[in-house]
Protein backbone atom coordinates (compact mmCIF):
# COMPACT_ATOMS: atom_id res chain seq x y z
CA UNK A 1 0.00 0.00 0.00
CA UNK A 2 1.49 3.39 -0.98
CA UNK A 3 2.52 5.55 2.00
CA UNK A 4 -0.11 8.20 1.38
CA UNK A 5 -2.92 5.63 1.21
CA UNK A 6 -1.59 3.81 4.26
CA UNK A 7 -1.53 7.09 6.16
CA UNK A 8 -5.08 8.06 5.13
CA UNK A 9 -6.59 4.64 5.87
CA UNK A 10 -4.72 4.44 9.15
CA UNK A 11 -5.95 7.88 10.21
CA UNK A 12 -9.53 6.81 9.41
CA UNK A 13 -9.73 3.39 11.00
CA UNK A 14 -7.18 3.26 13.80
CA UNK A 15 -8.08 5.02 17.04
CA UNK A 16 -6.39 8.38 17.03
CA UNK A 17 -4.18 7.68 20.05
CA UNK A 18 -0.88 8.41 18.30
CA UNK A 19 0.66 11.11 16.16
CA UNK A 20 2.90 9.24 13.78
CA UNK A 21 5.81 10.39 11.66
CA UNK A 22 4.84 10.43 7.96
CA UNK A 23 6.83 7.39 6.85
CA UNK A 24 6.01 3.73 6.43
CA UNK A 25 8.80 1.49 7.72
CA UNK A 26 9.04 -1.79 5.86
CA UNK A 27 12.31 -3.40 6.89
CA UNK A 28 15.37 -3.05 9.05
CA UNK A 29 18.96 -4.20 9.23
CA UNK A 30 21.27 -3.45 12.14
CA UNK A 31 21.12 0.28 12.91
CA UNK A 32 19.15 1.08 9.75
CA UNK A 33 15.50 0.98 8.79
CA UNK A 34 14.05 1.53 5.32
CA UNK A 35 10.76 3.11 4.30
CA UNK A 36 8.44 2.09 1.49
CA UNK A 37 10.22 4.38 -0.96
CA UNK A 38 13.54 2.74 -0.08
CA UNK A 39 14.90 5.71 1.91
CA UNK A 40 17.38 4.72 4.62
CA UNK A 41 17.22 5.98 8.22
CA UNK A 42 19.66 5.61 11.10
CA UNK A 43 17.60 4.48 14.05
CA UNK A 44 18.16 6.34 17.33
CA UNK A 45 14.69 5.37 18.59
CA UNK A 46 14.91 1.56 18.39
CA UNK A 47 11.13 1.15 18.57
CA UNK A 48 11.20 3.15 21.83
CA UNK A 49 14.19 1.48 23.48
CA UNK A 50 13.04 -1.99 22.41
CA UNK A 51 15.33 -3.22 19.62
CA UNK A 52 18.44 -3.52 21.79
CA UNK A 53 20.21 -5.72 19.21
CA UNK A 54 19.11 -3.54 16.31
CA UNK A 55 17.09 -4.95 13.46
CA UNK A 56 17.32 -8.49 12.11
CA UNK A 57 20.06 -9.73 14.44
CA UNK A 58 20.83 -13.24 13.09
CA UNK A 59 20.80 -14.96 16.52
CA UNK A 60 17.47 -13.39 17.44
CA UNK A 61 15.89 -14.18 14.08
CA UNK A 62 17.14 -17.78 14.19
CA UNK A 63 15.84 -18.27 17.75
CA UNK A 64 12.41 -16.96 16.80
CA UNK A 65 12.26 -19.08 13.63
CA UNK A 66 13.34 -22.21 15.47
CA UNK A 67 10.88 -21.73 18.31
CA UNK A 68 8.01 -20.75 15.99
CA UNK A 69 8.43 -24.02 14.11
CA UNK A 70 8.54 -26.01 17.35
CA UNK A 71 5.89 -24.44 19.61
CA UNK A 72 4.48 -20.92 19.67
CA UNK A 73 2.13 -21.02 22.61
CA UNK A 74 0.99 -23.48 25.26
CA UNK A 75 -0.35 -21.32 28.17
CA UNK A 76 0.65 -21.47 31.82
CA UNK A 77 -1.39 -24.61 32.42
CA UNK A 78 1.82 -26.48 31.50
CA UNK A 79 5.59 -26.26 31.87
CA UNK A 80 7.58 -24.89 28.94
CA UNK A 81 11.36 -24.82 28.83
CA UNK A 82 12.08 -21.38 27.30
CA UNK A 83 10.16 -19.69 30.14
CA UNK A 84 12.10 -21.52 32.84
CA UNK A 85 15.45 -20.93 31.12
CA UNK A 86 14.72 -17.22 30.81
CA UNK A 87 13.64 -16.97 34.43
CA UNK A 88 16.87 -18.75 35.42
CA UNK A 89 18.89 -16.21 33.40
CA UNK A 90 17.13 -13.29 35.06
CA UNK A 91 17.57 -14.73 38.54
CA UNK A 92 21.23 -15.61 37.92
CA UNK A 93 22.00 -12.05 36.82
CA UNK A 94 19.95 -9.94 39.22
CA UNK A 95 19.03 -9.46 42.89
CA UNK A 96 15.80 -11.38 42.26
CA UNK A 97 14.84 -14.93 43.17
CA UNK A 98 11.48 -15.23 41.42
CA UNK A 99 9.97 -14.07 38.15
CA UNK A 100 6.45 -13.50 36.82
CA UNK A 101 6.10 -13.10 33.05
CA UNK A 102 3.59 -10.91 31.23
CA UNK A 103 3.47 -9.06 27.92
CA UNK A 104 4.29 -5.39 28.42
CA UNK A 105 5.72 -2.79 30.75
CA UNK A 106 2.34 -1.73 32.05
CA UNK A 107 1.49 -5.32 32.92
CA UNK A 108 4.83 -5.80 34.64
CA UNK A 109 4.09 -2.74 36.79
CA UNK A 110 0.53 -3.91 37.34
CA UNK A 111 2.00 -7.14 38.72
CA UNK A 112 4.43 -5.17 40.90
CA UNK A 113 1.60 -3.04 42.33
CA UNK A 114 -0.54 -6.10 43.01
CA UNK A 115 2.40 -7.92 44.59
CA UNK A 116 3.21 -4.96 46.87
CA UNK A 117 -0.41 -4.69 48.01
CA UNK A 118 -0.70 -8.40 48.57
CA UNK A 119 2.56 -8.58 50.52
CA UNK A 120 1.54 -5.76 52.80
CA UNK A 121 -1.99 -7.07 53.19
CA UNK A 122 -0.74 -10.51 54.15
CA UNK A 123 1.76 -9.18 56.67
CA UNK A 124 -0.01 -6.16 58.15
CA UNK A 125 -3.69 -6.65 57.30
CA UNK A 126 -5.94 -4.25 55.36
CA UNK A 127 -5.33 -0.51 55.26
CA UNK A 128 -1.59 -0.49 54.70
CA UNK A 129 -1.78 -0.36 50.93
CA UNK A 130 -0.49 3.00 49.75
CA UNK A 131 2.18 3.31 47.10
CA UNK A 132 4.25 6.46 46.77
CA UNK A 133 5.43 7.25 43.25
CA UNK A 134 7.28 10.18 41.69
CA UNK A 135 6.00 13.28 39.97
CA UNK A 136 6.81 13.22 36.27
CA UNK A 137 7.13 9.42 36.33
CA UNK A 138 5.80 7.01 33.72
CA UNK A 139 4.59 3.52 34.58
CA UNK A 140 2.10 2.65 31.83
CA UNK A 141 -1.42 3.09 30.52
CA UNK A 142 -3.59 0.60 32.42
CA UNK A 143 -5.78 2.07 35.17
CA UNK A 144 -3.39 1.10 37.97
CA UNK A 145 -0.25 2.14 36.13
CA UNK A 146 -1.65 5.42 34.82
CA UNK A 147 -2.67 6.14 38.40
CA UNK A 148 0.91 5.36 39.47
CA UNK A 149 2.15 7.71 36.73
CA UNK A 150 2.70 11.18 38.17
CA UNK A 151 1.62 13.13 35.09
CA UNK A 152 -1.71 14.91 34.58
CA UNK A 153 -1.66 14.44 30.82
CA UNK A 154 -1.67 10.64 31.24
CA UNK A 155 -4.48 10.64 33.83
CA UNK A 156 -6.76 13.35 32.48
CA UNK A 157 -10.30 12.19 31.71
CA UNK A 158 -9.84 8.71 33.19
CA UNK A 159 -11.02 9.59 36.68
CA UNK A 160 -11.87 8.11 39.09
CA UNK A 161 -8.31 6.89 39.48
CA UNK A 162 -7.33 3.97 41.68
CA UNK A 163 -7.23 4.85 45.39
CA UNK A 164 -4.01 4.50 47.35
CA UNK A 165 -1.39 6.43 45.41
CA UNK A 166 0.48 9.59 46.26
CA UNK A 167 3.17 11.50 44.41
CA UNK A 168 6.33 13.21 45.52
CA UNK A 169 9.05 15.20 43.83
CA UNK A 170 11.75 13.03 42.23
CA UNK A 171 15.23 13.16 43.78
CA UNK A 172 13.97 14.98 46.90
CA UNK A 173 14.39 12.76 49.96
CA UNK A 174 12.81 15.07 52.54
CA UNK A 175 9.61 15.24 50.48
CA UNK A 176 9.47 11.44 50.37
CA UNK A 177 10.01 11.16 54.12
CA UNK A 178 7.11 13.56 54.68
CA UNK A 179 4.84 11.64 52.33
CA UNK A 180 5.20 8.17 53.85
CA UNK A 181 3.11 7.03 56.79
CA UNK A 182 1.60 4.02 58.52
CA UNK A 183 -0.38 3.20 55.41
CA UNK A 184 2.57 3.18 53.01
CA UNK A 185 3.30 -0.25 51.53
CA UNK A 186 5.79 0.62 48.80
CA UNK A 187 7.79 3.25 46.94
CA UNK A 188 7.95 2.98 43.16
CA UNK A 189 10.72 4.70 41.18
CA UNK A 190 12.37 4.70 37.77
CA UNK A 191 16.14 4.95 38.41
CA UNK A 192 16.08 7.21 35.35
CA UNK A 193 12.81 8.84 34.37
CA UNK A 194 12.59 8.07 30.66
CA UNK A 195 9.28 9.30 29.26
CA UNK A 196 9.39 12.11 31.84
CA UNK A 197 12.34 13.72 30.05
CA UNK A 198 15.46 11.70 30.97
CA UNK A 199 16.10 12.63 34.61
CA UNK A 200 18.71 10.53 36.43
CA UNK A 201 18.23 9.74 40.13
CA UNK A 202 21.03 10.78 42.47
CA UNK A 203 23.00 7.91 43.92
CA UNK A 204 22.70 9.24 47.46
CA UNK A 205 18.98 9.75 47.03
CA UNK A 206 18.37 6.15 45.97
CA UNK A 207 20.53 4.91 48.85
CA UNK A 208 18.52 6.97 51.32
CA UNK A 209 15.26 5.68 49.81
CA UNK A 210 16.53 2.11 50.14
CA UNK A 211 17.41 2.62 53.81
CA UNK A 212 14.06 4.22 54.55
CA UNK A 213 12.19 1.38 52.84
CA UNK A 214 14.19 -1.27 54.71
CA UNK A 215 13.68 0.45 58.06
CA UNK A 216 9.90 0.62 57.64
CA UNK A 217 9.44 -2.64 55.71
CA UNK A 218 8.11 -0.79 52.69
CA UNK A 219 8.90 -2.46 49.38
CA UNK A 220 11.15 -0.63 46.97
CA UNK A 221 9.97 -1.12 43.39
CA UNK A 222 12.29 -0.16 40.54
CA UNK A 223 10.58 0.29 37.20
CA UNK A 224 13.39 -0.70 34.84
CA UNK A 225 11.09 -1.20 31.88
CA UNK A 226 13.14 1.35 29.94
CA UNK A 227 16.48 1.27 31.77
CA UNK A 228 16.85 -2.51 31.95
CA UNK A 229 18.54 -4.95 29.55
CA UNK A 230 21.76 -3.03 29.02
CA UNK A 231 20.28 0.34 28.13
CA UNK A 232 22.44 2.22 30.65
CA UNK A 233 25.61 0.17 30.09
CA UNK A 234 24.97 -2.43 32.78
CA UNK A 235 22.35 -5.17 32.54
CA UNK A 236 20.17 -3.22 34.99
CA UNK A 237 20.51 0.42 35.97
CA UNK A 238 20.28 -0.32 39.70
CA UNK A 239 23.74 -1.93 39.55
CA UNK A 240 25.25 1.50 38.92
CA UNK A 241 23.57 3.07 41.93
CA UNK A 242 24.66 0.40 44.38
CA UNK A 243 21.05 -0.05 45.48
CA UNK A 244 18.91 -3.18 45.14
CA UNK A 245 15.12 -3.06 44.96
CA UNK A 246 12.70 -5.65 46.35
CA UNK A 247 10.74 -5.74 43.11
CA UNK A 248 11.88 -4.82 39.59
CA UNK A 249 9.93 -4.62 36.36
CA UNK A 250 11.23 -5.17 32.84
CA UNK A 251 9.78 -5.07 29.33
CA UNK A 252 10.89 -2.94 26.35
CA UNK A 253 14.35 -4.39 25.52
CA UNK A 254 13.70 -7.77 27.12
CA UNK A 255 12.40 -9.54 24.01
CA UNK A 256 14.49 -7.57 21.51
CA UNK A 257 11.23 -6.63 19.75
CA UNK A 258 8.87 -9.40 20.78
CA UNK A 259 6.30 -8.34 23.37
CA UNK A 260 7.27 -9.58 26.82
CA UNK A 261 7.37 -8.11 30.31
CA UNK A 262 8.57 -9.43 33.64
CA UNK A 263 8.10 -8.68 37.30
CA UNK A 264 11.06 -9.86 39.41
CA UNK A 265 11.15 -10.10 43.19
CA UNK A 266 12.85 -11.50 46.23
CA UNK A 267 11.44 -14.87 47.27
CA UNK A 268 10.15 -13.52 50.60
CA UNK A 269 8.04 -10.99 48.69
CA UNK A 270 6.97 -13.29 45.86
CA UNK A 271 5.61 -15.83 48.38
CA UNK A 272 2.61 -13.58 48.89
CA UNK A 273 1.23 -14.49 45.44
CA UNK A 274 0.07 -18.12 45.67
CA UNK A 275 -1.61 -20.12 42.87
CA UNK A 276 -4.58 -18.28 41.42
CA UNK A 277 -3.61 -14.85 42.76
CA UNK A 278 -2.38 -13.50 39.44
CA UNK A 279 -2.00 -14.64 35.86
CA UNK A 280 -1.66 -13.96 32.15
CA UNK A 281 -2.68 -16.16 29.22
CA UNK A 282 0.22 -15.13 27.00
CA UNK A 283 2.70 -14.40 29.79
CA UNK A 284 5.99 -16.21 29.35
CA UNK A 285 4.93 -17.69 26.05
CA UNK A 286 7.63 -19.91 24.46
CA UNK A 287 8.14 -17.69 21.41
CA UNK A 288 8.65 -14.47 23.37
CA UNK A 289 10.85 -16.27 25.91
CA UNK A 290 13.01 -17.88 23.22
CA UNK A 291 13.54 -14.41 21.74
CA UNK A 292 14.41 -12.94 25.14
CA UNK A 293 16.83 -15.81 25.81
CA UNK A 294 18.60 -15.09 22.53
CA UNK A 295 18.83 -11.38 23.42
CA UNK A 296 20.20 -12.22 26.86
CA UNK A 297 22.88 -14.53 25.44
CA UNK A 298 24.04 -11.96 22.91
CA UNK A 299 24.18 -9.26 25.59
CA UNK A 300 26.29 -11.44 27.87
CA UNK A 301 28.46 -13.35 25.43
CA UNK A 302 28.91 -10.70 22.78
CA UNK A 303 30.36 -8.09 25.15
CA UNK A 304 27.48 -5.86 24.14
CA UNK A 305 27.26 -4.27 27.60
CA UNK A 306 30.87 -3.02 27.44
CA UNK A 307 30.16 -1.67 23.99
CA UNK A 308 26.96 0.02 25.16
CA UNK A 309 28.83 1.70 28.01
CA UNK A 310 31.54 2.99 25.66
CA UNK A 311 29.00 4.18 23.11
CA UNK A 312 26.97 5.81 25.87
CA UNK A 313 30.02 7.85 26.89
CA UNK A 314 30.75 8.70 23.29
CA UNK A 315 27.16 9.80 22.68
CA UNK A 316 27.07 11.92 25.85
CA UNK A 317 30.36 13.57 24.84
CA UNK A 318 29.03 14.34 21.36
CA UNK A 319 25.80 15.79 22.71
CA UNK A 320 27.69 17.93 25.26
CA UNK A 321 29.94 19.28 22.52
CA UNK A 322 26.80 20.07 20.58
CA UNK A 323 25.53 21.96 23.63
CA UNK A 324 28.73 24.02 23.75
CA UNK A 325 28.36 24.99 20.10
CA UNK A 326 24.62 25.70 19.96
CA UNK A 327 22.63 28.12 22.07
CA UNK A 328 19.47 26.15 21.31
CA UNK A 329 20.71 23.36 23.59
CA UNK A 330 20.07 23.97 27.26
CA UNK A 331 21.10 20.68 28.89
CA UNK A 332 22.23 17.12 28.25
CA UNK A 333 21.29 14.35 30.71
CA UNK A 334 21.40 10.59 30.83
CA UNK A 335 23.24 7.38 31.49
CA UNK A 336 24.62 5.00 28.89
CA UNK A 337 22.46 4.81 25.80
CA UNK A 338 19.54 6.62 27.39
CA UNK A 339 20.36 10.27 26.70
CA UNK A 340 18.20 13.36 26.68
CA UNK A 341 18.78 16.83 25.35
CA UNK A 342 16.77 19.80 26.52
CA UNK A 343 16.36 22.41 23.80
CA UNK A 344 15.01 25.95 23.67
CA UNK A 345 13.31 25.34 20.35
CA UNK A 346 10.35 23.15 19.42
CA UNK A 347 11.59 19.58 19.91
CA UNK A 348 9.00 18.16 17.51
CA UNK A 349 10.33 20.30 14.66
CA UNK A 350 13.85 19.02 15.40
CA UNK A 351 12.49 15.45 15.16
CA UNK A 352 10.91 16.26 11.76
CA UNK A 353 14.09 17.92 10.49
CA UNK A 354 16.15 14.91 11.55
CA UNK A 355 13.69 12.57 9.84
CA UNK A 356 14.10 14.50 6.59
CA UNK A 357 17.86 14.02 6.94
CA UNK A 358 17.55 10.25 7.48
CA UNK A 359 17.84 10.22 11.27
CA UNK A 360 15.16 8.80 13.58
CA UNK A 361 15.07 10.50 16.98
CA UNK A 362 12.28 11.04 19.46
CA UNK A 363 10.93 13.87 21.64
CA UNK A 364 9.50 13.13 25.10
CA UNK A 365 7.98 16.60 25.38
CA UNK A 366 7.94 20.03 23.73
CA UNK A 367 11.48 20.63 24.89
CA UNK A 368 13.27 17.31 25.33
CA UNK A 369 14.87 15.14 22.65
CA UNK A 370 15.62 11.54 23.57
CA UNK A 371 18.27 9.23 22.08
CA UNK A 372 17.75 5.51 22.73
CA UNK A 373 19.53 3.65 19.92
CA UNK A 374 20.12 -0.09 19.65
CA UNK A 375 23.06 -1.09 21.87
CA UNK A 376 25.00 -2.04 18.74
CA UNK A 377 25.26 1.63 17.70
CA UNK A 378 28.73 2.62 16.42
CA UNK A 379 30.86 5.78 16.69
CA UNK A 380 30.10 6.41 13.04
CA UNK A 381 26.34 6.39 13.69
CA UNK A 382 26.84 8.79 16.59
CA UNK A 383 29.08 11.11 14.52
CA UNK A 384 26.37 11.19 11.88
CA UNK A 385 23.70 12.01 14.51
CA UNK A 386 25.76 14.91 15.89
CA UNK A 387 26.37 16.17 12.35
CA UNK A 388 22.64 16.13 11.56
CA UNK A 389 21.73 17.78 14.89
CA UNK A 390 24.34 20.51 14.34
CA UNK A 391 22.96 21.13 10.90
CA UNK A 392 19.41 21.43 12.25
CA UNK A 393 20.48 23.77 15.08
CA UNK A 394 22.56 25.91 12.68
CA UNK A 395 19.66 26.27 10.33
CA UNK A 396 17.41 27.23 13.21
CA UNK A 397 19.86 29.92 14.38
CA UNK A 398 20.00 31.37 10.86
CA UNK A 399 16.21 31.48 10.68
CA UNK A 400 15.88 33.25 14.04
CA UNK A 401 18.79 35.71 14.27
CA UNK A 402 17.41 37.03 17.58
CA UNK A 403 18.80 33.91 19.25
C1 LIG B 1 7.44 2.26 28.35
C2 LIG B 1 7.38 2.23 29.82
C3 LIG B 1 6.32 1.62 30.52
C4 LIG B 1 5.12 1.04 29.81
O1 LIG B 1 5.46 -0.04 29.00
P1 LIG B 1 4.39 -0.61 27.93
O2 LIG B 1 5.07 -1.81 27.37
O3 LIG B 1 4.14 0.47 26.94
O4 LIG B 1 3.15 -0.95 28.69
C5 LIG B 1 6.39 1.58 31.89
N1 LIG B 1 7.41 2.11 32.56
C6 LIG B 1 8.45 2.71 31.93
C7 LIG B 1 9.57 3.27 32.73
C8 LIG B 1 8.45 2.81 30.55
O5 LIG B 1 9.45 3.43 29.93
UniProtKB/TrEMBL annotation:
SUPFAM superfamilies: PLP-dependent transferases. One of its GO terms (molecular function) is N2-acetyl-L-ornithine:2-oxoglutarate 5-aminotransferase activity. It catalyses: N(2)-acetyl-L-ornithine + 2-oxoglutarate = N-acetyl-L-glutamate 5-semialdehyde + L-glutamate. Its cofactor is pyridoxal 5'-phosphate. The modification N6-(pyridoxal phosphate)lysine is found at residue 252. Belongs to the class-III pyridoxal-phosphate-dependent aminotransferase family. ArgD subfamily. Homodimer. This is Acetylornithine aminotransferase. It comes from Nitrospira japonica.
